[in-house]
Amino acid sequence: MSKLISGKIISSQIKEELRNEIENLKKRGLEPCLAVILVGEDPASAVYVRNKKRTCEELGIRSVGHDLPETISQDELENLVNDLNNDSSVHGILNQFPLPNGLDESSVIRTISPEKDVDGLNPLNAGLIAMGQPSFISCTPYGVLQMLKRSNISTSGKNAVVLGRSNLVGRPIATLLSSKGWDSTVTVCHSRTEKLAEITSQADILIAAIGIPQFVTANMVKEGSVVIDVGINSIEDPSKKSGTRLVGDVAFDEVQEKTSMITPVPGGVGPMTIAMLMVNTVNAARLQNGLSELEI
User: Which residues are catalytic?
Assistant: First the structure.
């Protein structure tokens, strides 16, 4: 039976480290602040935003919410972002995605100041990752790296396969794992990759971020490998009161039998994403006030 990599435990460790840092910053007159923009009434987005605000409150980070109607125009939304860019009391800006139809997410991402881009999506920050000079790393890939690091999983010289090529997860994590200090040999696969199982079954480290429930089965996994499941999907389950349950992109029960370490869903990568958003917010406050970046 493989060992579980618990995002709940690791994120709690990181948040405890942050809590002490935030207290010290406040003693110096610096209160980290995150502005969160929610457009429309998407239920899942509303839950994510509540969780982020709750974590801010738990750690002592000031959060400023901007709940906007789905009828807002592109100009009005970007004017708000620019106002937050120019507000020195705000250190991080997060616009919860997806946006309602008719609004351009890419344009909003480009509008957010790179210095306040705690989601790590601005093209400048994405480009710095590609150059091996990361500033703000998008939160989910950052969380995956921390899970590997804090679980003492060696990445140097290992074959890492990233299943998924999104700008949010797949591409940045592949770039980061191949960079100096992590030193993995990385293969990026996706839905059109031929002989997919042959490739994934050679991975020492398999990161599943393809967005398909329980897509990765035991025959796709190498014996003794490490599997990081980024997926979070809702599937029907009549045995549950809600009628649904959450699963990852990995068929956990059968894959667990072959791996040395694996993340669960829920309780794996999910808690790490929010923890790393908090890290980015604290680092944004530090950098904007002439302090060095935290070592996490």
Answer: 52, 96, 119
